[in-house]
Amino acid sequence: MVVKASLRPVVISGPSGTGKSTLLKRLFAEYPDSFGFSVSHTTRKPRPGEENGIAYHFVDKPRFEKLIGENAFLEHAEFSGNYYGTSIRSVEDVGTKGKTCILDIDMQGVISVKNTPLNARYLFLAPPSLEILRARLEGRGTESPESVKKRMDQAEKEMAFAETGAHDKIIVNDDLEKAYKDLIDFIFEEP
Length: 191
Ligand SMILES: Nc1ncnc2c1ncn2[C@@H]1O[C@H](COP(=O)(O)OP(=O)(O)OP(=O)(O)O)[C@@H](O)[C@H]1O
Known about the structure:
By secondary structure, the protein is of the alpha/beta class. The protein is built from seven helices and nine strands. It has helices spanning 20-30, 61-69, 88-96, 107-114, 130-140, 145-162, 176-188, and strands at residues 10-13, 35-36, 41-42, 57-58, 73-79, 82-87, 100-104, 121-126, 169-172. The chain has a five-stranded parallel β-sheet, with helices on both faces. Strands 4-3-6-5 form a four-stranded mixed β-sheet. A hairpin with a 2-residue loop joins strand 5 (73-79) and strand 6. The longest helix is centred in the last third of the chain and has 18 residues, at 145-162. The two termini are 16 Å apart. It binds adenosine-5'-triphosphate.
């Protein structure tokens, strides 16, 4: 049986290292048919086995630039010579397929989504403290000291943004079980 949440997209944001991926991995594992991520656009070439429209929407540069001009993207960026972006349409497509779209994005992304007709719900995942956040980032073993510093600087901006009341709900990820329960309550509170 598919457990249904509201088809309004759910935007989850919060500082890097605060536990978004950990919680979302669990959510998708528990409810595999209820939630989806949008399919991004990219100008990079498909790798073997990557299907158009599934791994990415593969497009050429002129097409991508045309989409930028049409304000089709919530966010887009260039990495090593290729464009990547999340289109508004790709978020809507998840809902059309009967799944709740989950967007894991930063505060700039939150601001962009607010400027679209997507009618999303906004959840902010906060660390118990900045010291604990630093310990998690260091403990994850994926970041260089420079990268930790960059993420901590950005974390302060994210926290200040959350204090403006931009989100529908703030969950503090102290105890993981409690945070997961709070996430489930938020996600399923809308029929
Ligand atoms: N409640 C918790 N208590 C202790 N450690 C946690 C908790 N939640 C997550 N962690 C750990 O913190 C680290 C960061 O978590 P995670 O990678 O999920 O963060 P993230 O918000 O997805 O970061 P990014 O935005 O950089 O992808 C991981 O090593 C994870 O195991």
